[in-house]
Amino acid sequence: MVAVSFLALVIFCYFSGFPLIIPLLVFFFGVHLFYFKKVTPRLYLHLALLLALLIFAAHALKAYSHLIHFYLPIASVAMLTMLLFNDVQISFMMAFMASTLAGIVLGFDLNEMLVFFLGSLAGVYKVRDARTRGSLIEAGIFVSIIQVVSAFLINPVVNKDILMYILKPLAINGLICAAVVIATSKIFETIFGEITNFTLLELSDSSHPMLKRMVVEAPGSYHHSLIVSNLAEAAADAIDAHSLLVRVGAYYHDIGKMVKPEYFTENQMVVGNKHDDLEPSMSRLVIFNHVKEGIELAQKYHLNHRIIDFIPEHHGTSLMHFFYQKALAEDQPEGLDERDYRYPGPKPQSKETAIVLLADSVEGATRAMDEHTPQRIEDLVRKVINNKFIDGQLDECNLTLREIDTIASTFVRVLSAMYHGRVKYPEKSNGNNTKKSSKEDTNP
Question: Could you tell me which of 45, 80, 138, 370 has the fewest CB atoms within 10 Å of its CB?
Fold first, then answer.
């Protein structure tokens, strides 16, 4: 597909009369992405499609010579890249590529390319972590200001022609970029299978059908998910990971428990433990199935794959230690294999899913403690995270040792605040010697 796309671009440029340096530039852009950013061919094709659409738009605008070329929304390409892929470096490269390619097609000089490049960078930095549609309008205004200021710095002379044919179009251009991003972000999100902050906020709404169902059918698991989300989001903020994605992923990581909620401890509020009457092998199957059923539910509700990844990866290939030890204690056959009591995986593939894995394990272990002193909480958190590290659950994500230590410290801080001690108020006494409050003394 990459080769076909490159060949199609060569043919288009040749028959359109555009310089063949355009395909060469795109080729080296792809080389850089593959060898230095380690992106997938799928991501490269998505980026190439955005650039191709810009080139076609520039070609169409060029056919109408009476239109001012400064109206072309070049910055929208880099802004969309930032919203869809949440990567500043790739967005920086797309800002350069979009400004250069559009400049070649429309015959811009170096100064004009630089104006649009700076405007694109302004849009990228402004839409980073954008969570409201209003922030996109602000980004468009910011793009307009930067482009006008850049053009003025290049040529400080202002007359009527410059004002009407350069500065005015550049000012309007930023608003056009914002409108294009608002109108097309959902379309590209669907085509590319990516997820933006706007969709994440929609999924985080407690009125979402999946969350409303979870509140009714598995209230204990829902409450557990809320605590995990708070822990995980704080840790993600501390290491500059995608905190909103982490929070929403934590909301949905245990939705499979809705199918048989009574088999999970947090939902066993009245009846006893269902697993007391089951063989360890049967308990293992029930627990395994909540991952499979969670994925099926997520697909039924059309959740994005970035959210679905949290369901299997928040367990990784961890061992069901309790049921494995129970099986050993019940003198199971010698053929008992530890691998049969491990989750199928995969292990966390990103920082975000790894954080939820750690938060999920730490929250469950802390909840089971008898005494929640800060020192005991810290010892437990360090022990749980160290065990996950030794077990190899963090081998396939890109967390550093420094980030793991920061995550642990954040967990300790948040959990210590959640389980802080409270002052015990004295009980009321019916004795005559009990001193009344000042309020009671003043009453007749």
Answer: 370
